[in-house]
């Protein structure tokens, strides 16, 4: 590991020395990621399903055991606070596989305030991802051809050489792949090495969630692309909100109001002028149109496939795609074109 960041108070490897090669391996081959920082918040007990629904403005009534769903979590103002994958393991057992914020505290507090019969915990579960067009062959080689039949976000619990895992078709890229949820933290190195060895014929290599790929693909990073007031509709997550869930769902009243009033901001893509890779931008940078501030660029990265610096704009909803704007970068204003997401 040569670079890392902090996620859920833990160290997340972000590179193994050659970001460009790691990107192309994800696009063309298979990449192995230590994403153990995607912590699980477990709901266990008779009211686990009720609590899951109270926390999620997405209708979960049809979710079956063995199925996962992408669910935005909102606070009482309709502000998005996390965007986990929810795994339903059994009628009385759920995991929220969380992004970077403290959902354990949140879920425990809501459960207690509502008087629910459910235990909220952070179990010993750590995901590892295999991503890329060749990931399926590697995972099938280790586990058998049944994995090829897994539908998106569906999973199965099993063992790999005695190591307890859950295997899901998922992962934070649009290149396809699986996540192996390790259920025994003492076996991490063993699990890693099994896939490292099994993947040799496909030239597997270590990597990490790739900022360039996820941006090209239009995936949202909560906390980076969103701020203290962002609701799901502003960042293209409205299709994961069901306004007719029951009134006790946290934030649903606010979300109904926001939907009725119409959103003030929306998220579009930015293609910046110039063909020189700019350093990764995580700071928010002002966006100007006709001398007026209209919002901010929330991330910026060089896209090897588009051969341009690209980013996301969170801007006034009245400003459409096709417009040219100025981004106020450190070295001066840069022209950029607003486009629809995803880029690719
Ligand atoms: N895997 C696991 N846990 C996670 C992530 C993950 N927790 C944090 C973070 N990633 C959660 N965020 C996302 C965001 C998007 C997707 C998955 C997790 C995703 N979205 C698809 C899309 O937007 O096109 C499909 C969503 C759908 O249509 O249902 O895959 O990666 N374990």
UniProtKB/TrEMBL annotation:
Domain Aminomethyltransferase C-terminal: 265-343
InterPro entries recorded: GcvT/YgfZ/DmdA, GcvT/YgfZ_C, GcvT_C, GCVT_N, TrmE/GcvT-like
Domain GCVT N-terminal: from-to ranges: 10-244
Pfam family, one: GCV_T_C
Protein name as it appears in the record: Glycine cleavage T C-terminal barrel domain-containing protein
